[in-house]
Amino acid sequence: MQFNITFRQFGASDSLKEYAREKVERVNKLLDRAGEAHVVLYLERHLHHADITIQSGAWVLRGRAESDDMYASIDLAMDKIERQLRRYRDKLKTHHGRERVHHRQDLVNSLKVRHAVFEVPDVEELALIAAQSTVESSTTTKAADPVDAAATRVVRATQLTVKQLSVDEAVMQMNLMNNDFYVFHNVESDALGIIYRRKDGQYGLIEPHEPPALAVATGT
To answer: Are 88 and 204 in contact, with CB atoms under 8 Å apart?
Structure first.
């Protein structure tokens, strides 16, 4: 297995590197195809974060965790990956053996989707804006909404390669990555789709809808 590790906001550690490698190798034994692993360890807001990605053929497994200890974060992230891998292990074997398996390059759509994450002001900032809005409301007819008044900004943008998958395959890939949504090209409807996890534990599907022609709508 090809293994890469990145340390951010703190110095590289040989012991952490070997610990992460051993954990990844254990999971790699469960894969039919030798995977490629990338581990990112970083500190943020006094917490130790582990972001681990393993690619095996067309499928991507990912686990992210945070705790007060980096070794514990690695354990938690790998537990998430191993849990999903064991859940879908039989299906992964089936897909790897099929003729139309999606690791073939010609079955991967080159379309890129931009995923943006917005930063929302914290509670203290909203309180200050609300206080200012209250003072200013005496000279205006309508007080400003604190959330509207606080500027939000894009703090991270990601381009995603959209794969051609069925809805069931998209659900599996979303779960293998431990995500709450997944963007894909639906081979059943030939449309861009977004599968997402609902609050009730079920799954939802969003697809673009082309409105009917005006002539059809008016009956002319």
So the answer is: no
What is the spatial distance between Cα 168 and Cα 161, in angstroms, rounded to a whole number?
18
Tell me the CATH number for domain 1-103. Answer: 3.30.160.100
Pairing between β-strand 108-119 and β-strand 153-165 as defined by DSSP bridges: antiparallel
Q: How many CA atoms lie within 13 A of 118 on its CB side?
A: 7
Q: Where are the domains of the chain?
A: 1-103
- Tens-digit pLDDT profile for residues 82-132: 998 888 877 776 655 443 444 444 444 445 545 444 455 555 555 555 555
Q: Flag whether pLDDT at 24 surpasses 90.
A: yes
Contact 180, 197 (CB under 8 A): yes
Where helices occur in 159-213 by DSSP H, the ranges are 167-176
Cβ(65)–Cβ(41) below 8 Å: no
**Bridge partners for 5 per DSSP:** 39
